[in-house]
Amino acid sequence: MTQFTRRDSSHLARMTDQFRRERALARADVDHVFEKWFGDLCPGWLEALDARDDPRWTEDQFDRFILAVDAHLPFRDALVLSALDTMSLEDMEEAVTHPFSERAAEITVTRTWEYLNNPYCVPDLDRTAFAVSIIRTASSAISESPSVGFYSMEAYLCWWMGRLTESEAANEKAIQLSEDYPLARIMRNTYTRGLVPAWLRRQIIEHAGQEGEEVR
């Protein structure tokens, strides 16, 4: 990934300040700001996941990708949902650029509920693993100023894949950066309670049942 070279943390900080100023000034037209800053990132991300290839972003787009993970949580959430399974460009753009719309809420809630509650809804593990590889590579480009958003997103996706040890390790890095980061706290509680994804829980139960049959 040629564009994933080490980034200038001071430049990223200035970009973040500029985004937050524009968001604060926009008020009622905040969706326009989201579209300006993040709308063009969605095609590159989805194309990369679909093709299992590097995102074809410019330097500026990569910087805005890094910025968005921490500064615009709907973007982070859309990255997660699109990593678990295919997602249309229209749905991702809606979730990212119009996060307060009824349709965006429906997209997020419906997909999340299905994964949380349907034991037969298994993520596309290869797709999710590739998304994690992008996230890790991007995170290494900002190692001088680590991102709690990247670490917690890595932890969340690893959990969905059933890679629980990797998930906890990534989340510990997130907690060290910010104990109050909501997703990191959610994940820590998840480990404490011994929760696993619905699809993995089903497999564990089925495996235990098969072992019981063999004993009898």
TrEMBL record:
Superkingdom of origin organism: Bacteria
The protein, known as: Uncharacterized protein
Organism: Alloscardovia macacae
